[in-house]
Amino acid sequence: MLDLQQLRYFVAVAETENVGRAATQLHISQSPLSRQMQQLEARLGLALFAREKKRLRLTTAGRTFLKEARALLAHAAKVENGAQDIAQGRAGSLAIGYVEGAIHSGVIAAGLRALRDRAPNVRLQLRSLRSAPLFAAISQGDLDVGLAYSAPSADGVLVGHLCAEEKFLLAVPEGHPLATGRLLPQRLHGQTFIAAPESRSLQTRQAFLQACAVAGFMPNIQFEADNPTIALGFVEAGLGLAIVQASLRHRAAPSVVLRAMPGAFPLRMRIYAVAARDTSALVRVFLDACRRAP
Questions:
Q1: Is 44 helix (H, G, I), strand (E, B) or coil?
Q2: 282 and 151 share a domain?
Q3: Got the DSSP string for 191-250?
Q4: Is residue 172 located within the same domain as residue 261?
Q5: What pLDDT is stored for residue 282 in this prediction?
Q6: Do 155 and 279 belong together in one domain?
Q7: One domain, residues 15 and 39
Q8: What SS3 class is residue 272?
Q9: What integer is the mean pLDDT of 80-102?
Q10: Containing structural domain, residue 64
Q11: Of 123 and 170, which is predicted with more confidence?
Q12: 213-236 residue pLDDT tens
């Protein structure tokens, strides 16, 4: 196999047509450089130079080999630079999983902006997933990083960083009795609510009901919506009430009133950036930006 350093020596000698000048250019002594050229010719079984007194002229085979050597060295430099870009988080590919709340909170936008600024040619794959499948995909290597509603187990192979925390707001149809006046828990008790499907996440439903109980009321869940923007549409249609993360204010129709939940309501929307404990520089760029998201 050809030695890249030996090829660099050959190109220098070919371009200067003199071992002494090439040695000076390469910062090595003349004798080792001469031996390197002899070893290269012996390895190839070709005469690369025609020796004329103190000058070396390329043979026909030498000129052909010079073109190939230059191309090989250029490709090697490209490969090396590409590897350095990947190592320093300036290039590569990234598969990102996310929950919908990461979009509305602005966390995923912050991460993507950082990637665009640091590595504009990075190849991205985005996948919408629930938290549990997202954890599994990262553990199996199908995703590089993810944004989830919960942190992974502390004793597992993944690590999570809290990036965003928001209160929930109560979405009320305009004209509804709860659209005005003091929002006491007893006024919420028994009201018709729109909630996330129980079949999709029993844990989410239980967390919602537990938070309602802590706040002093129990909702009457009659409708389900697997998307908070759809839930806002149901509220606009007058079907009931819903809780939505605060960053969804701008998505609510003018006919939907958003109100602060009673102070005792403990539920919060949290977004965690999740990745393997040993991860790439590109993932670290994304994680750092997500943690700094407003």
A1: helix
A2: yes
A3: -EEEE--TTT-HHHHHHHHHHHHHHT---EEEEE-SSHHHHHHHHHTTS-BEEEEGGGGG
A4: yes
A5: 84
A6: yes
A7: yes
A8: strand
A9: 74
A10: 4-87
A11: 170
A12: 999 999 999 999 988 999 999 999
